[in-house]
């Protein structure tokens, strides 16, 4: 009787301890598998040469590229030429084919010294390839890293190139890349009367799309003139989601010179329409904010200088600016919120002693047009009126919700 009782207790104890151990083991295995899935390296469209190289062989090819267009660590043009692709023309966007021109500088046509291929600027006299240029190619390849913001001009270049392809019955092969701000879908929708070179499309400030997804939206929503459609083939990114943390292997423009600036750019570029410097003329652009008249209100300071290839005539040049240092700001806070940060804008407007000059673009030729950057006059008027952050955000909601529904139709990634 006692033996049976003891065996029963022993067996129960064995089962009791085996159960949780097996469960923990299974959980650990599951967690390990999940971790393996999370850490799988992102593979860009350009890196997936097996998916498109044979498609390019035997064709006369044009490429729209800049310094971010790489296969591995090698410029895409150099790689494709070495692999036997017949590249006839190179087209470069703002900042040029090699990415060395300053913000807003017109870029001249040239010949690429390494390959001898003509390099044509799409940020000078031309906005899109000409009929004659398109006649010399069979296919156009587009491979440029974007940062997911309406006023970053590479999406404009994409639209112009799609228009040229549609007009000339040429296919566009788009090698997709991750959007480092792919989680950010926020901000006011561009209003029609504020259409400009820093706002071509009726989208929010942060659109949360890759270039491939954006190209699909341009086609699907009839955004080209006369609602033309471009023949489009997209080489997708592997192992990417819109929530993926993605560090750019090559920085996209001279003033987005750190990963921190890439992540802060959607939130700080609005300051280009104000009297507040965003750090142009320093080696920490889009990581700091300040102005001379904020002396005494902030202890942090910096002094913009003329820097060739970055900012040669920056706002407040050779003046000490006082303000906010965001170089160590935890950008994961933005990722978690998924929202455009307008708190800094409200704070600095309140702190600035000459409020009538805060948005006055006549104060300096370096200042942009705030309303065109914002895509609406409402944001400026709301800040002047002292509206709260929540009140401002609420005014965006109808347009933003409509865009989020529309956006779903064109997503290539979860």
Automatic annotation (TrEMBL):
Q: Which Gene3D superfamilies match?
A: 3.90.1150.140, Uncharacterised protein PF07075, DUF1343 (3.40.50.12170)
| GO molecular-function terms, A-Z | peptidoglycan beta-N-acetylmuramidase activity
The Peptidoglycan beta-N-acetylmuramidase NamZ C-terminal domain extends over: 263-413
| Peptidoglycan beta-N-acetylmuramidase NamZ N-terminal domain sequence ranges | 61-259
Q: Which organism is it from?
A: Dyadobacter jejuensis
PANTHER family with a match to the protein in the record: HYPOTHETICAL 460 KDA PROTEIN IN FEUA-SIGW INTERGENIC REGION [PRECURSOR], PEPTIDOGLYCAN BETA-N-ACETYLMURAMIDASE NAMZ
| Pfam name, any one | NamZ_C
| Domain of life of the native organism | Bacteria
This chain belongs to which protein, by name? Uncharacterized protein YbbC (DUF1343 family)
């Amino acid at each position: 009787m006692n033996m049976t009782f003891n065996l029963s207790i022993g067996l129960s104890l064995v089962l009791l301890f085996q159960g949780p151990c097996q469960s923990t083991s299974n959980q650990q295995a599951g967690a390990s598998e999940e971790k393996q899935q999370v850490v799988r390296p992102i593979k860009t469209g350009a890196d997936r040469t097996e998916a498109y190289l044979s498609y390019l062989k035997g064709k006369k090819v044009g490429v729209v590229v800049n310094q971010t267009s790489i296969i591995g660590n090698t410029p895409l043009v150099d790689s494709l030429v070495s692999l036997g692709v017949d590249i006839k023309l190179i087209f470069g966007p703002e900042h040029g084919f090699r990415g060395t021109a300053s913000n807003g500088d017109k870029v001249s046509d040239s010949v690429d010294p390494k390959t001898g291929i003509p390099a044509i600027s799409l940020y000078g006299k031309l906005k899109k390839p000409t009929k004659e240029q398109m006649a010399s190619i069979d296919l156009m390849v587009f491979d440029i890293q974007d940062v997911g913001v309406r006023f970053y001009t590479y999406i404009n270049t994409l639209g112009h190139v799609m228009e040229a392809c549609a007009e000339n019955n040429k296919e566009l092969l788009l090698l997709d890349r991750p959007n480092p701000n792919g989680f950010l879908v926020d901000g006011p929708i561009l209003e029609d009367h504020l259409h400009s070179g820093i706002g071509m499309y009726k989208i929010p400030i942060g659109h949360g799309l890759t270039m491939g997804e954006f190209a699909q939206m341009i086609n699907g929503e009839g955004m080209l003139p006369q609602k033309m459609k471009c023949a489009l083939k997209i080489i997708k990114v592997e192992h990417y989601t819109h929530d993926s943390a993605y560090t750019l292997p090559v920085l996209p423009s001279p003033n987005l010179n750190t990963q921190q600036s890439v992540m802060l750019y959607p939130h700080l570029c609005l300051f280009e329409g104000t009297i507040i410097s965003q750090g142009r003329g320093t080696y920490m652009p889009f990581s700091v904010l300040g102005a001379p008249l904020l002396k005494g209100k902030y202890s942090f300071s910096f002094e913009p200088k003329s820097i060739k290839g970055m900012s040669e005539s920056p706002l407040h040049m050779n003046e000490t600016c006082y303000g906010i240092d965001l170089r160590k700001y935890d950008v994961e806070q933005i990722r978690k919120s998924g929202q455009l940060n307008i708190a800094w804008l409200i704070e600095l407007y309140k702190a600035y002693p000459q409020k009538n000059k805060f948005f006055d673009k006549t104060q300096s030729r370096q200042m942009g047009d705030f309303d065109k950057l914002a895509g609406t006059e409402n944001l400026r008027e709301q800040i002047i009126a002292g509206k709260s952050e929540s009140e401002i955000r609420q005014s965006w909601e109808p347009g933003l919700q409509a865009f989020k529904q529309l956006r779903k139709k064109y997503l290539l990634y979860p």
